[in-house]
Write a structure and sequence with these properties.
Layout lengths: L7 H18 L2 E9 L2 E8 L5 H20 L11 H22 L6 H20 L11
Helix pairs in contact: 1-2, 1-4, 2-3, 3-4
Length: about 140
């Protein structure tokens, strides 16, 4: 693969997708610690363990990964929309799921929730910059 063909927008999408994947799959979304003297107890959960919205965020990040892979496939399959628009939709969906989960439980948040949100928003920006815009047909008189 010729790396000179990778545009700035593509790098933004790749970086945002990687951060989103790390945030949803590897890092904790919520963490709490309680201590009484010498006795300390900690508990933490990742995105998958937070319920249906967390699972949808994980699935959204996996769809984002598929989109990044399709960026580098020589002959990608036909999609009903352009690939940048599909990446924008997947990234925005993932960011929306993270925000909804934050609104549902907004205390004891951990770094994974914030990494997922920032990564999805960065990837959405990169996809928008790549050309993931809705274009309205102009009416010509």
């Amino acid at each position: 693969m010729d790396m000179s063909r990778v545009t700035r927008s593509m790098w933004i999408v790749i970086g945002g997708t990687v951060v989103t994947l790390v945030g949803t799959l590897l890092l904790d979304w919520y963490s709490v610690s309680v201590g009484f003297g010498q006795f300390h107890v900690s508990a933490s959960v990742g995105a998958w363990d937070t319920g249906a919205i967390g699972k949808l965020a994980v699935l959204g990040s996996l769809v984002m990964l598929v989109g990044v892979v399709l960026l580098f496939v020589p002959n990608p399959p036909e999609l009903p929309v352009t690939l940048p628009m599909a990446m924008l939709a997947a990234s925005a969906f993932t960011a929306l799921m993270v925000v909804l989960k934050f609104l549902d439980i907004h205390s004891h948040t951990a770094i994974g929730l914030w990494a997922s949100l920032v990564g999805a928003l960065v990837a959405a920006y990169g996809a928008y910059e790549m050309g993931g815009r809705l274009t309205m047909p102009s009416s010509t008189p």
